[in-house]
Amino acid sequence: MEHKKTAVITGASSGLGAAMAAEFRRNGFHVVALCRKAPAQGLADEFIAADLTDPEELRAAAKEIETRFGAVDVLVNNAGIGSYATWEELSDAELRREVELDFLAPVALTKELLGCVAAARGAVINISSAAAYIPVACMGAYNAVKAALRMFSVTLQMEVAGRGVHVLNVCPGRVDTGFSSRALGGRKPPETPGRTSSSAEVFARKVFNAYRKRKRELVYPGWYWFAIVFARWFPGCCERINRRVWQLK
Ligand SMILES: NC(=O)c1ccc[n+]([C@@H]2O[C@H](COP(=O)([O-])OP(=O)(O)OC[C@H]3O[C@@H](n4cnc5c(N)ncnc54)[C@H](OP(=O)(O)O)[C@@H]3O)[C@@H](O)[C@H]2O)c1
């Protein structure tokens, strides 16, 4: 019997994680979903329940994966949460939750499973965000954690390349997944006119292709690169747009 490659995907119960689970399965992977709620029937081959903000639960899940599979071909650090609040409004608890889930958990899980990924000469895929590059008012904490996650990817790549491990950093722009409705903070995101949202299925295909081609970074959709360059070179303009959109005094 042909040996299937193993992909461990965090946050595979909904949104981008669910779409990536389906895509990796379509490409013959044995998918292990790591999240709190079980994914829909048939979306993943296995489900390990863990709250990744709980270090004990994270370690126990990693141990189970190591014992059961030994080698992990792909680890996708996808679980994450956003927040809509100014720095002044965001509570300490909300900030801590965001740092724990979006940054500390992927770092801890990667450290726990690095030996398994190296055993397969596999890949770590970190789902950061276009927000790692583009500052957005009332999303400062999210900007900060996703930028930290991107730097984690870039520096980890340097450290593990010699062991045959590849690191792909992914920066999605807005994709409608219900992510906004689950975000922390007291504000509602402003409605942005025009077609700014993209498809989770197309996103998942792009991620798989970028993984297959051993790319270092994927920004999806590609036109976000214009926004990234704009924000980098025209910070004053970027500030004025943000103040207007968020109706800041
Ligand atoms: N959608 C976008 O527009 C967008 C844009 C840029 C970046 N991203 C990033 O893409 C990733 C996925 O976002 P999404 O849009 O798919 O969001 P989503 O639909 O809200 O999915 C988030 C996933 O994270 C899991 N999760 C949340 N808290 C967890 C915890 N404490 N422990 C374990 N798992 C937890 C959830 O599963 P359980 O509830 O079952 O635990 C869920 O499967 C996130 O990192 C997000 O920052 C999204």
TrEMBL record:
Positions in coiled-coil regions: none
Q: Which keywords are on file for this protein?
A: Oxidoreductase
Alphabetized InterPro entries for the sequence: NAD(P)-bd_dom_sf, SDR_fam
Looking up SUPFAM superfamilies in the UniProt record yields: NAD(P)-binding Rossmann-fold domains
Question: Record's Gene3D superfamilies?
Answer: NAD(P)-binding Rossmann-like Domain (3.40.50.720)
| Pfam families xref list | adh_short
* Keyword match Cell membrane: no
Please provide one cellular component term from the Gene Ontology annotations of this protein.
membrane
Position of the signal peptide? none
In the record, what terms sit under GO molecular function?
oxidoreductase activity
State the PANTHER family in the record.
Answer: DEHYDROGENASE/REDUCTASE SDR FAMILY MEMBER 7B, DEHYDROGENASE_REDUCTASE SDR FAMILY MEMBER 7B
Q: Which family is this protein grouped under?
A: Belongs to the short-chain dehydrogenases/reductases (SDR) family.
Under which name does UniProt file this protein?
SDR family NAD(P)-dependent oxidoreductase
Question: What is the scientific name of the source organism?
Answer: Victivallis vadensis
